[in-house]
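Q: Could you fold this chain for me?
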Amino acid sequence: MSTSPSHTVMTTMSAPAGQRRPRFGSRGRLEPYLLIAPTVLLVAGLMVVPVVIVIVYSLFNNVVTNQNPQFVGLTNYFTILSDSSFWNAAGNTAVFTVASVVIHMVIGVAFALMLNSKLVHTLPRSIFRAVYVLPWIFTASVVAVLWRLLLDPSGVVNFLLESLGVLHHAVPWLGTPATALLAVTLINIWSGYPFFMISLLAGLQGVPADLYEAARVDGAGLARQFVSVTLPALRPILFSMALLDLLWTTQQFTLIWATTGGGPIDHTEVLSTYTYKLAFNGYQFSLASTSAVLILLASLIVAIFYVRQQRKESQ
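A: Sure. Below is the predicted structure, expressed as structure tokens.
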């Protein structure tokens, strides 16, 4: 007795899923890898390969400018670590970074609390939000040009300070060794605090109002509410943002290069400008690669700490 085609189709459809034959075979197993292959190649080409090349360059002398560079091992690392200019740049980087991150946090928390407060009416709050976020709109080059004009001896800052009697004569803020690092640090603080403010404002809006109500019932004032309710709620955000800002500020280049170029007399020289000058002013590409590797290692330590903290919070 023959079996009709419709009966065969019904039998196949009614078979248990575990007994069906695979439709794609090896192609189905390779499909996930084929889908991620473009991303893997892109990451490898833009990130892994350049990093490997820089590490290799740091182990040779006179790369790029010499057709037959010689392998020198760790000699370049000893040279960089014994260079006083490197440690001067490292010290300036530490001052510039720590001051920027700490004050970013303080200003960000203060402005976020003000914009989230119900004591400020809706219209002023909207105006303040627009004004406070302005520094984030400008690129680093625009910020550098703006502040170079403001801090010029004939600029607005000197004019106001002289008018108020604070100064007796104009000060070239970016050209004086005693004030140059302070000036670029303040510029970086001005341009970077909106990142903290906006992120913390979003965090504050997620804090349940019931917690503040319970604190008020217990007799807690504004200061106690901030310590007992606001800070614990914002602690994960503050920690994550501080580490990210630490990484970004350590690698700041455009702002410093466009305002002072690392001067005067290396008083604003940071690791990024130090490495750049080694490569493109002195054509010492091996030493520049060595400096870049050392910066990478320091950044990796912070990045690993950040990832571990994020993993701990997600558990």
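A (continued): Confidence is low (pLDDT under 50) at residues 1-15.
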